[in-house]
UniProtKB/TrEMBL annotation:
PANTHER family: LIPOPOLYSACCHARIDE EXPORT SYSTEM PERMEASE PROTEIN LPTG, SLR0882 PROTEIN-RELATED. It comes from Pontixanthobacter aquaemixtae. GO terms for biological process: lipopolysaccharide transport; transmembrane transport. Pfam families: LptF_LptG. GO terms for cellular component: ATP-binding cassette (ABC) transporter complex. This is LPS export ABC transporter permease LptG.
Amino acid sequence: MQFDFFPSRSLTLYLAKLFITRILAMLVMLVIVLMALDLLSRTGEILAVPGNGQGELLTYIGLRVPQLIARFLPYSVLLATLITLVTLNQNSEVVAMKAAGLSAHQVLAPLLLTAALVSVANFAFNERVVTRATATLKAWQANDYGPIPADPGVRSNVYLTDGANILTATTLTGKGSNTRMEGVTWYSRDPNGMISEQLRAESASFANPGWKLSNVEQFDVSAADTRTVESLVVGKGLTIAQIEMESVDPETQDFFELSRSIDAYEAIGRRTTELRAKWWHKISGPLSAFLMPLLGAVAAFGLARSGQLFVRAIIGMALGFAYFVVDNAALAMGSFGGYPPLLAAWAPFFLFLLIGETVLIRTEE
């Protein structure tokens, strides 16, 4: 009987290599299939813009693939776990390892170590690549797949309020006094809360105070009259600080930048429940890959000739997908304030960690 957590060095490397190749294979397969399906629905929108062609399609693929990799990497680990363990079971390799004195946890240890490294790589990939690609893609989509804004810090679909009045913009670029909005709409409301005037402008720049709209189409609701003016200044109560605070998007900010945004929100007494839940989920999300070998371990043990191997594989897959369903539901509840942010992000992880350990211990240990 061995008391080390890992088996021999040779066996650890063998299992880790076997596992990582299957993870990569499943990830490539999922990304190719999902990217092809996504292109079927997006190609028409991209090519409808004059001047767009194959280059823009490749740009879209380059921006969308990082999102698909980050989202479906844990699924790839789950499927790779089932394929790896079922294959080892069918070839009686699990029986040989247990006959040599290895426990179920020792058999799984190389897979858990590999999954932990995948989780760390996924976190780093999210921070350095996915957030930037998401910011650029959202800005491009907000511009209806026209020219991509050059500013990497571009924000899309901005919604701001100045008292009862509303200012919206399709994109917002720059910082400080160089902040600029594109595709701007301003709604003026009367004391009864009804919209009295609507202004549409190509762009808006900071006028200190207020925002100067350029090439404005002005519509008077009461008179049902439309006219065009060269420029107007609106939103004198909207400061640069408020603009930057209102345009926080957790999906386009890395872990540390989002942390600073949350601190700024809390300093002025703003609600941070949704941001805090997504901040925690930036850690718990990638770490979900570490759970997959444990949840799929039920497929590794039991005699392949007993006829229950397929059933065990289905149980492992069900446990893995149940985790993703519960995780998404908990995150949604946390965003709405139903759960505390810490509980929303981490409760599913520890719940299924206990479930996986319980199943493994009761069946094999």
